[in-house]
User: Fold this.
Amino acid sequence: MAEREPVTYLVTQIPAISHTFIADEIIHLEQNGWQVRTIAINPPTGVDEHNPSDQMWMRRTLYLKLIPRLRASMTVLRHVVRHPSIVLLPLRLGGFDVRSYVWRYFYLAEAILVADAMHGWGSHHVHAHYGQSPASVAWFASEVGNRVFPGSTAWTWSMTVHGWHEFVNEEAANLKEKLAAASFVVAISDFTRSQLFRIADPEHWHKISVVRCGIDLTRFTRRTPPAEASTAGPIPKCLLMVARVSREKGHLVALNALKLLRDRGVDVVLELVGPGQFGFEAHVRAEIARLGLQDAVVWHGPATPEQIADHLRRADVFCLPTFAEGLPIVIMEA
Assistant:
């Protein structure tokens, strides 16, 4: 059987604590005979340089924003000069917002770098996780490839749409246009697919399939129930919330629920696991102080998958109050 050509995966960041499911997906594709090349738009943050897994992903991934500026600029300029029609690609998305057009040209520059790398690998298909900027770059990269590196194999692209963030701003994300242009689209749940059906023209519905996220069950073992009491007295119940600290998560709801429990005499402690995002952590800390819960909340910050599994084993109750979700991996893990 002929060897499969590489497939390129385009993500915002890898390794990333909140995107371990993407890394797992790539690994399982490779275990099933696929060659996968990885490109990340942003460099990794908060990685453990001593972690073999993090080291592996950093070695194998092309980080667009770590390409030396002079080299990146020369690559983009070279292809634009030889094929000036590619500068018209962002205009295909329509609209009249100047700021959006500026961002699209940033995406185009990144797409040229992606297409240049893919050409060197012999890859003609790029798959993007998330329907926002990664999908824009992947779409433009396939168009650039077809114009700059024409051949017997057409360049194609696809995307995985997770939900809420993509279709809450469907016009800004140009989802309708992307659904028409992609060769196929993965929805991570039936609800996500239903929203994509709502947005896409019916003639493109056949391209949208549900592929649910999964977890590695070998990471999780049944625990021994914790002792109810010790010589020091009753042990406080452990309430666990694992989520990035951002506006769409319900940390403030969890804190008010914790306050109700404590006021009713329930000895419970809330443990928070997850990275902060966009400064929202300050609001959560202020609410803890306002409610007088400083002694009832434990902050753990970001955690590896192994550490999260350990937190889940020790917890009495897992909760995830949230205002917007696709299909949270941590709920399946819990």
In short: The CA atoms of residues 246 and 255 lie 14 Å apart. The first strand starts at residue 7 and ends at 11. The radius of gyration is 23 Å. The mean pLDDT is 90.
